[in-house]
Amino acid sequence: MNDLIISKIATLVEEACKSDNNNFGYGIWSHHIKPMLIIGQELAIEYNADTEIVIIAILLHDLAGIKDEKKRKEHHIYGADEADTILRSYNYPDKKIEIIKKCIMNHRGSVNNPKGTPEEICVADADAMAHITEIGSLFYVVYKEMNMDIDQGINWIKDKIKRDWNKMSEKGQIKLKDKYDQIQNIL
User: What is the rounded radius of gyration, in angstroms, for the C-alpha atoms of the chain?
Assistant: First the structure.
């Protein structure tokens, strides 16, 4: 595993999360990306996926939206392009860059593209699982960043969690069934 590149990318992403331009606040790092890294590494072992690819894709998957709010709705598209630029600057292997770009392109629940590699499944599942296990971060987004009222926020979170659940692999759903059911009961 290329720990040096991973470390550089992690620093780059964490710095973007600390930036005043980041409308999600630092919590996107501490309550979304970091938990995804733990989940993604566990899933990579289960799915026999390339752990390095999973880690790098997780680090970069939301970067475009973090850096520029205008790119948020299509951050998966912009993010794949940005990942390409970043990884090429490190002379990262072309074949791995293409897989990372697919992971980023296909991680979103609202897009729900088919996942063709174990790495894509790991990143998409880790993204969805982190939204469920770190549900507090979604409350932060709807009430602090999106300024929603209580009912709007609850409905947005319900829809988000449902989209995440629907994009998750069957294995992922089995792992999180109890938490998902608890959240549905609470909301």
Answer: 16
Residue 101 scores a pLDDT above 80: yes
What is the per-residue pLDDT across 51-97, written as a single tens digit (0 to 9) for each? Answer: 999 999 999 999 999 998 888 888 988 889 999 999 999 999 999 99
Distances (CA, A) of 26 to 31, 34, 57, 75: 8, 11, 19, 18
- Which of 119, 39, 11, 23 has the alpha carbon at shortest distance from 75? 23
pLDDT at res. 28: 93
pLDDT digits (tens, 9 = 90+) for 126-156: 999 999 999 999 998 899 888 999 999 999 9
pLDDT, one tens digit per residue, over 154-164 is 999 999 999 99
The SS3 call for residue 119 is helix
